Amino acid sequence: MELWFSERYTPNAQFSIRVDKQIFSTQSEFQRIDIFDSPEFGRFLALDGYLMCTEKDEFIYHEMIVHVPMAVHKNARKILVIGGGDGGVVRELVRYDRVETIHLVEIDPEVVQACKNYMPFTAGWLNDPRVTIFYEDGLKYIRRQVEEYDLIIVDSTDPFGPGEGLFTKEFYGNCFKALKEDGVMVNQHESPFYENDAVAMQRAHKRIVQSFPISRVYQAHIPSYSSGHWLFGFASKKLHPLRDFDPESWKALNIKTRYYTTVLHTGCFALPAYVEELLREVE
Ligand code: SAM
Prior knowledge:
By secondary structure, the protein is an alpha/beta fold. It folds into two domains: 3-54, Spermidine Synthase, Chain: A, domain 2, CATH 2.30.140.10; 58-282, Vaccinia Virus protein VP39 (Rossmann fold, 3-Layer(aba) Sandwich), CATH 3.40.50. It has ten helices and 13 strands. Helix 6 crosses helix 7 and helix 7 (195-211) crosses helix 10 (273-282). The protein is globular, with a radius of gyration of 18 Å. The structure holds S-adenosylmethionine. S-adenosylmethionine binds at residues 30, 47, 52-53, 61, 82-86, 105-108, 111, 137-139, 155-157, 162-163, 165-166, 188.
């Protein structure tokens, strides 16, 4: 008998992965947490039936959400990660010697525990001495922060369920307030392809543009995410993702990556015409 994990993108399109075994499953206070083993994508985490990260392609997402802002903000030392319970963002951040403090604000301790137990390839760096985990709602945590952080990375679930509040104007306005005068916020910015995803992306983009003077969008190809075409938001008080990018200084750090390159850094901000149009509609 074959077992398949499917994520439905629309009533007429879904993505399915054949599964060897279900490794873990629980219903936490916030969401259903499942971990599976699969022949094609390796071990993967799903929350409320939505794919979060797979062993095979999580490096793409985690490299792109971390190295793009870290290559622009060369003095980023105090960093806030909101969401990110699988640990992949932290794994990429601790590769920078200059990083002094990482605050991870994750609403669900059971996600962290499950990933520590079963997803060591992403959660294996959460015990780094620079990391402090706060188990609370990022929407509430950010209200208390004023000019605290150099970089905020919003690595949330999608804009429904516990993640809904992390796509609001109030949240983005408070992220602006929580950043230092040259601070940067990067967020997972959903996908432009399917109608519902595109509407969610436009809604988030409109609210970010209203909160930050500089707001650009970049892209990556993530096979296990909706349509494979994924976007990231780069919002900033002062630093521009391309004008203030110095490839040589990032290369001098000698950080080995499998997806991010300094050439791709420039290229990923070049978006398809239909995506530019979707963004222009709400700017
Ligand atoms: N990379 C994945 C993606 O792009 O879909 C998401 C990674 S991570 C698993 C998402 C995390 O956000 C989850 O662990 C979830 O518990 C957390 N989360 C959702 N809503 C939150 C909130 N309001 N405050 C803090 N963490 C939240």
